[in-house]
Design brief:
Length: 648
Amino acid sequence: MKVVNLKQAILQAWKERWSDYQWAINMKKFFPKGATWDILNLAEALLEQAMIGPSPNPLILSYLKYAISSQMVSYSTVLTAISKFDDFSRDLCIQALLDIMDMFCDRLSCHGKAEECIGLCRALLSALHWLLRCTIASAERLREGTTAGEKQLTMCLQRLHKILSSTKNRALLHIAKLEEASSWTAIEQSLLKLGDTFASLNNSHLQSQAEECGALVRSIPIMLSMHSEQLHKTGFPTVHAVVLLEGTMNLTGEMQPLVEQLMMVKRMQRIPSPLFILEIWKACFVGLIESPEGTEELKWTAFTFLKIPQVLVKLKKYPQGDKDFTEDVNCAFEFLLKLTPLLDRADQRCNCDCINLLLQECSKQGLLSEMNKDSLTEKRIADREQSPWLKSAENANIQPNPGLILRAEPTVTNILKTMDADHSKSPEGLLGVLGHMLSGKSLDLLLAAAAATGKLKSFARKFISLNEFTKHINGENSKAASVRALLFDISFLMLCHVAQTYGSEVILSESSTVGEVPFFETWMQMCMPEEGKILNPDHPCFRPDSTKVESLVALLNNTSETKLVQILKWHEACLSILAAILEILNAWENGVLAFESIQKITDNIKGKVCSLAVCAIAWLVAHVRMLGLDEREKSLQMIRQLVGPLPS
């Protein structure tokens, strides 16, 4: 399609006074889908028609603005078209062109191939040259005494400063300079002419504006070296490493050692407080983004939103000289808000406004004033408006982990208070609390919140106490026996989960503690498989009272799991099951028991009380490791039976 036909279509739209959206619809009907509007030079054709008279045609300009807003035309073609207009004496036309540049020059972007991105850089360089020429022409008119010259000159300087004050725009111009050396020479010549022209003006305000714009242009060729110096001054990888190591390996650790390590690094490297706090937040967001989904993600979320604000509270207590720590925190957040890609990626990963939640938590901890919190929140909201993909409809129903973690923290305190009560008075009520904890990912959220706030050990001790409580029986009916069995089972499984997720040291009593060692601690140390831990299946603890073992074997072989609940002491059953499994395994291997009998026994073991199955599998794992490859078949088959689902 020839350009002349494009012009005819624009003129027809003007004659018939089409609205902007009618024009866009009809244009798409008139022209084939194969050719893009940039290839047809739509932006240039619209500008050419709009600028025919002494003042711009508002209707045709509205078509161009609609084309820009709806991305019918690229920013590069619009900038190129503007830079071809050279009648600087037509004030209204110049003002209209500057207004069009205002629409997008603070958010230049390009979606396409590398050539199109380079095209945007070249177009911006052409637009800069055009602005400099326009500024020089306006200054010359002002020098000649034309009143309109000052207004136009002010507008040109404002647009120059707006474009050049953006680091991103200067980076694009730097790329264009490397691509178009001759065009950059023209820019330098225009700068010299600009300086000469302004030297003869008597307006100091306009002169200072022009000097500032000139300095920004001259900084473009050396911006890479300037940036590397800045990185050298503001990047502190040691702080980053300390925080990442703590968040990954030591969520349950005490806060004070971390605080002292960070302060030592700060003093040794003489890091200014705002940059020090900024580096801590940067490390947290990187850890949050890179963490694997599941438990590790919850750990990093708790570390970032619960532990680090409390670490900052402790850092606040160190001498700050005459500086206000809350102002340093505010300054660090101001720097952090400039790292938009990092924050956008974190928001996308967590499905929420992370900064908003973090600011609320810091304000609650007394690290930020209410005024600073509100100001920072507004800035982040404005930035998020430029990233519509952060509000994806498909994630609207997913509850974000940071919000869940922050709500879990007070729940941990309430559960600890509940667990302090006398268990014998209302075991059914306690069972309801535990059931609520096990729904969805509630337990993992509560454990992560407890770990980040230093309450996980207390949490574990409460469940060990509950597990010990279920050992004592004083004449109970079948309902009470069922409740006791469930309390034992849930507390046992929770403690196993804590030990596997956060390490067995969280469970163990202090070495100075006197008295009987709780059952779960004994079982965990002697029987629970862990990485790097060697278990001895022939240890004396695996050889309990033979009469109890025989009784348990008989029950497993002949009794339903419902009756089992009423007559067993569960801690004794967990120790006896190890020897019982060995007897059952030997009977199976010697042909005394058939596979159907093994299925019945394993179904009884994993029936209502899962802890028996866990203990049985733990012993079988240790036993299998002691066998040769050709001797493992039946033991592995029994493990598969125990971990499989119950028959419906």
